[in-house]
Amino acid sequence: MSDRLILGIESSCDETGFGIVRLGPDGSLELLADEVASSVEEHARFGGVVPEVASRAHLEALVPTLRRALDTAAVELSQIHSIAVTAGPGLAGALLVGVSAAKAYAAALGKPLYGVNHLAGHVAADTLQHGPLPQRCLALLVSGGHSQLLLVEGGLANSITEIGSTVDDAAGEAYDKVARLLDLPYPGGPPIDKLAKTGNGCAIAFPRGLTGPRDAKYDFSFSGLKTSVARWVERAERAGEEIPLADVAASFQEAVADVLTAKAIRAAKDLDVDTLVISGGVAANSRLSGLAAERCAEAGIELRVPRPRLCTDNGAMIAALGAHLVAAGAKPSPMDISTVPGLPV
Ligand code: KG4
Ligand code: ZN
């Protein structure tokens, strides 16, 4: 069998992504193009993604971003073998733009269509950099909208089970909210990460959510941590103290990294899994990857963290997931697939 080219389309939030992956006859993946247009700057003044603005931005970016991906990969649309698109979870209007486009291309070109899960896509991103996943692995998915621990068995085309998730805010959401409290720009992860480098992560003992003996073993909670940061800052302001911004950022970041890595490693040990993949926008966090590397080394667990570009939303990860489905001989989706904003993994 010859190479097959898979087009991936992502539009679940504020990034319009088109990726093209070459699937070799041996199942190998080669990334040919990964083009992303982001509307993040349009949302910055609102401190979060505005769904209507995101949908309009997808509509505008769609065709030019696809054009760039085809040019980068030096392929024609007619050479594409299959089209994969994020069907959920995500913003309803934003998903509709990508899924409608994918259906139109698939129908016009007579190509198979695969409606795929965005969360599984984040895990698939890692296979573009580090190759196939082992038979069993654990994935910690941490982004602006999600914080989950997933058990992946038999590859991405088979079984993915959610074993834990956040009960309130996602990890990235906590970063964005705490950044707002500290008057840092949106999205909050990168500026907190940068500021934290000059601070002391042990300066303030912020709470580690859901780590008590009776708490759900693999679930996360970040809203108490965010409130605790707010209270700490308010108290210091009332007392007329200067806020040690770098220490607050570093201590908040330490609490997030501590709880995420501790729970992921506990789950890996309990489930006898020896590979941990961390993906999603928050995987770009320097303290999270640093602490995960230390703790995984101690526990004899192999850690895989894709490069930041692959961690944030993109079309390449959707193309990669589509390629895994094609390689596994999965049935294409019907042409009347719908978007599922609340799609579970
Ligand atoms: O995966 P992503 O691009 O989009 C979603 O699907 O949500 O993740 C975006 C999130 C934002 O909340 C952003 O603040 C966070 O990832 N983020 C970071 C870092 N870079 C991005 N959080 C912590 N540290 C970073 N370096
Ligand atoms: Zn995402």
Question: Which overall shape is indicated by the principal axes computed on the Cα atoms?
Answer: globular
The figure for the number of domains is 2
Top CATH class of the largest domain: Alpha Beta
Regarding quaternary structure, what we see is single chain
What ions, cofactors and ligands are bound? Answer: 5'-O-[(R)-(carboxyoxy)(hydroxy)phosphoryl]adenosine, zinc ion
Beta-strand content bin: 15-25%
Mean pLDDT over all positions: 96
What is the straight-line distance between the termini?
31 Å
Radius of gyration: 20 Å
Cofactor: Fe(2+)
Protein name: tRNA N6-adenosine threonylcarbamoyltransferase
Catalytic activity: L-threonylcarbamoyladenylate + adenosine(37) in tRNA = N(6)-L-threonylcarbamoyladenosine(37) in tRNA + AMP + H(+)
Subcellular location: Cytoplasm
What tags apply to this protein structure?
about 350 residues; alpha/beta; Nucleotidyltransferase, domain 5; 5-stranded mixed β-sheet; binds zinc ion; KAE1/TsaD; iron; ATPase_NBD; cytoplasm
Structure notes:
Helices cover 44% and strands 19% of the residues. It is globular and about 65 Å long. The strands form 2 sheets. It has a 5-stranded mixed beta sheet, sandwiched between helices. Strands 8-7-6-9-10 form a 5-stranded mixed beta sheet, sandwiched between helices. The mean pLDDT is 96. The chain has 11 helices and 10 strands. The protein folds into 2 domains: 4-125 and 311-327, Nucleotidyltransferase, domain 5; 135-306, ATPase, nucleotide binding domain (Nucleotidyltransferase, domain 5, 2-Layer Sandwich). It is of the alpha/beta class.
